[in-house]
Amino acid sequence: MGIIVVIVTGALMVIGLYWFVWILGPAERQGKRGVNLSGGSIAAEKVQDNYKQYWSFFRHPNEIETSERVPDFVDTFYDLVTDIYEWGWGQSFHFSPSIHGKSHREATRIHEEMAVDLINVKPGDRVLDVGCGVGGPMRAIAAHSRANVVGITINEYQVKRARQHNKKAGLDSFCEVVCGNFLQMPFPDNSFKGAYSIEATCHAPKLEDVYAEIFRVLKPGSLYLSYEWVTTDKYISENAEHVAIIQGIERGDALPGLRSYTDIAEAAAKVGFEILKEQDLAKPPALPWWARLKMGRFAYWRNHILVTVLAAVGIAPKGTVDVHEMLFKTADFLTRGGDTGIFTPMHMILCRKPVTDSTSFDYC
């Protein structure tokens, strides 16, 4: 009888592990599985050390306020989280308003297509994706607009993943991925017919620096759209709970500091953009963007068990459990930011580079 119990128990454990990894494991059925979790470009044995290094940035906050330190900080973060993001979230590393009758994937696609529709590009136009990640938005936008999209990301591992996804989707002739710093982009002046950034420029220590680079590479008369992470008019800097929520978001998402919604248009105008439209897409009648985080709590615990097992048996790198736990805590801060209304990840701004381009503006 005892032998039968052991055999049945062992069989159930094997079936359970198979279920976790192969049935529930892929991120929205898009290919990344739990057994393939890595530290990006970081060697497996260095993941835990790099996780500690990431948190060391916050022990010396003044060091991450400079543009010299931030790229390393952000690059380390995306090495640590890219596989977990893909596995648990999908290939589009951003939020979108929930839509009645639509899946999360459909709502995400609609949110991405709106970005390129607003910048009025035509098939064949060269468009810049500022902070493209693994290219989920890039592929949706290229497929929708038939524009030629060039994405830039600072993380080499994300470049590799984006290129693999582009080829698999049959969109590599429309999508190009470049490894580089969006504060110093390797593109000539006046070389893009449009540009967009989806929840990416929040990583810049000074928003006007990245906006100035985007302004430089756009052709005169071209449009730029951004979805920005900001604190809203409900945020009270003297409220300890509000401060704790915002600091939790900053630390869990590699942000040198969240900006106020009032800073966005000011930064864009400072570098020479004409402001055409500004709107918080998270406000009613939009449905809560953070609903997906609340509904994902079961998935987190399921995934956390798997990550713990994979790390214990040596399949996933040491430190993966810590990174996964950090992201879950960050999800709680993001949810609280949504519930209180003090934070939005989709403050939209639409700008135009004037037809008469004055390159002598001062944005320092």
Automatic annotation (TrEMBL):
GO terms for molecular function: 24-methylenesterol C-methyltransferase activity. Pathway: Steroid biosynthesis; sterol biosynthesis. Residues 77-354 form the SAM-dependent methyltransferase Erg6/SMT-type domain. It comes from the Eukaryota. It catalyses: 24-methylidenelophenol + S-adenosyl-L-methionine = (Z)-24-ethylidenelophenol + S-adenosyl-L-homocysteine + H(+). Pfam families: Methyltransf_11, Sterol_MT_C. Keywords: Lipid biosynthesis, Lipid metabolism, Membrane, Methyltransferase, S-adenosyl-L-methionine, Steroid biosynthesis, Steroid metabolism, Sterol biosynthesis, Sterol metabolism, Transferase, Transmembrane, Transmembrane helix. The keyword Iron-sulfur does not apply. Coiled coil: none annotated. The keyword Methyltransferase applies. GO terms for biological process: methylation; sterol biosynthetic process. Its EC number is 2.1.1.-. It is an enzyme of class 2 (transferase). The chain crosses the membrane at residues 6-24. Catalyzes the methyl transfer from S-adenosyl-methionine to the methylene group of 24-methylene lophenol to form 24-ethylidene lophenol. PANTHER family: 24-METHYLENESTEROL C-METHYLTRANSFERASE 2, PTHR44742. Belongs to the class I-like SAM-binding methyltransferase superfamily. Erg6/SMT family. This is Methyltransferase. It comes from Cannabis sativa.
